[in-house]
Design goal:
The complex is a heterodimer of chains A (254) and B (256). In chain A, 36% of the residues lie in helices and 26% in strands. Chain A is built from seven helices and nine strands. Chain A has a six-stranded mixed sheet with strand order 5-6-7-3-8-9, sandwiched between helices. Chain A has a three-stranded antiparallel sheet with strand order 2-1-4. In chain A, β1 and β2 form a beta hairpin. Chain A is globular and about 50 Å long. The two termini of chain A are 37 Å apart. The model of chain A has no long low-confidence stretch (mean pLDDT 87). The model of chain B has no long low-confidence stretch (mean pLDDT 89). Helix content of chain B is 85%, strand content 0%. Chain B is globular and about 70 Å long. With 256 residues, chain B is mostly helical. At the A-B interface, β5 and α2 of A face α7 and α8 of B.
Amino acid sequence: MTNVVEFTSVRKTFRSQTDGGDFVAVDDLTFNVAKGEIVAVLGKTGCGKSTMFNLLSGLIAPTSGTVRTNGHDPFTDFEYFRGRIGIVFQNDRLMPWRTALDNVLLGLEILDRPRQESVEIAKGWLARLGLSAHENDYPHALSGGMRQRVSLARAFAVQPELLLCDEPFSALDEMTARDLRAEFVRITKQNHNTALFITHSINEALEIGDRIVVFHRPAKIAFEARLTKDTSEQEKVQLREKIIEVLAGEKRMA
Amino acid sequence: MMSFGINKRAVQAVASLVGLAAIWQIASLFFPPFLFPPVTAIAKYVWEILTSWEMFLDVLMTSGRIFGGLMGAFVVGGFLALLLYSSRTLENYISPILTFLQGIPALSWVVIAIIWFHGVEFRIFFIMLMTTLPAFTFQILGAIRSMSKDLYEMTLSFRPRRMQLFRMLYLPTLIPDIITAWRVNLGNAARVVVVAELVGATGGVGYQLLRQQQLFDMAGAIAWTLQLVLFVLVMQQILTFLENHFLRYRAVSERA
């Protein structure tokens, strides 16, 4: 199967503001994400999940090693990734001066799609996410769940080859988050998108991922498991316990 | 409820101005006209300015100078702010100069402009530019700096071109601060332009004020001053209109 994401021996260090030394955020990270796969990345706060996310979205460059998406470097091949990556952030990051519809249109405008076609696409996504009645509302008039739905629509609207999600539902109440998770998986599967979903919730990872990757500090794979349609609830419970053990093991090691 | 609040505020504002006029009128009963002319005499003069094309031209001239000077300072200041934002080294060199310029009084610029330049209009433009440029630059620079990093990263994730980034993120983010900068600098510019016109201009409100002083005509001096106040009020209303239009996305409570 073709790999959409390839991390090869990636290391990322930051200069410490306090003592001037190097702080290792990602250490010798190697892993792949295959086309059409949803990978849930689990780890404790500060384990380097977000650094990995920023490397993948091209916001920062690795100190050593290579990061490739569709064979291209996301940091240097700026143009190549126009419209190929959709990102859903932890907070909705909606532009307050744009209506819900205009926020969804943002990516399409950047891609220079014809206006009429873009509006139809954006309206279609808002409708799929149950926001047809709020197309012309500004973000301040929407609830947290609605806002995050708009940000999902914005990411899906450009039909990206890769979806990056950085704990997108962590700030929402459990009921809203559960609905949105189900929605997310359904749409991602329907569109055959590849997705990397960062979370600190084991339940969320089990609900969403085809594969679960557990990170230890600094971002390094400590455990991974694959889930299929046939994975039973009993197996999920066992997997959950195993993940807790791995995460607790890190604490003991520390 | 809200419109009642606004109406009440408007009534109170008008009442305070009427009260001031009443106090002036009472003073005119006890002092000679060259000190406190009656309100009716001032009103007559104001009407004369507004209805006489020749006199109103002086008001338009001053208004144009204010607007031109502010626009020049805004364009140059915006460009400078972008430059300073792009390079910390450049900022380290240019910021102290701008701070130094901020400390120079408007009257000093008038003297410098008279010595340096011949053309009256250019002199006034130069004075307006030099007195409002630092404020515009610092205000726009501050606005760029306070731009949301989250929104910047989100927009960047779609890989926009430089102009798209400017149009879709920078400009809408900067508009509230640009409007505030215009508001602040407008009052400053209106004061400076009069000083500039007092010395060397052959037309405009400042020139007319100088004439009224020579004629010892207090009614005229007040009437010409009121023209300037009126201009500032009209400009402020235009800015409020623009603010309401561009910031309509904000919750009403936030705007108020």
